[in-house]
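Below is a filled-in request sheet from our internal design queue. Each sheet records the structural input a requester submitted and the sequence that came back. We keep these sheets so that new team members can see what a complete request looks like end to end.

REQUESTER: design group, bay 2
PRIORITY: normal
MODE: inverse folding
CHAIN LENGTH: 64
BACKBONE (tokenized):
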């Protein structure tokens, strides 16, 4: 029984990962020198924070 649950759960996860981009398209925006991103009120904010010069997320800001 647990094997069937695992297979069904994995199948559902794979299906949702395949369908998700067409349900909720992701838009990335960057803003400088602001504490509030320029996004519509209905937007779902997935992540925010500082970026490196290469565009990668910085986990801890020590040199401001």
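RETURNED SEQUENCE:
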């Amino acid at each position: 029984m647990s094997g069937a649950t695992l297979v069904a759960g994995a199948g559902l996860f794979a299906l949702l990962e395949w369908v998700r981009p067409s349900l909720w398209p992701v838009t990335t925006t960057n803003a400088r020198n602001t504490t509030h991103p320029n996004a519509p009120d209905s937007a779902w904010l997935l992540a925010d924070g500082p970026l490196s010069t290469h565009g990668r997320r910085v986990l801890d800001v020590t040199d401001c």
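SHEET NOTES:
- DSSP finds one helix and no strands in the chain.
- The longest helix spans residues 2-23.
FILED BY: M.R.
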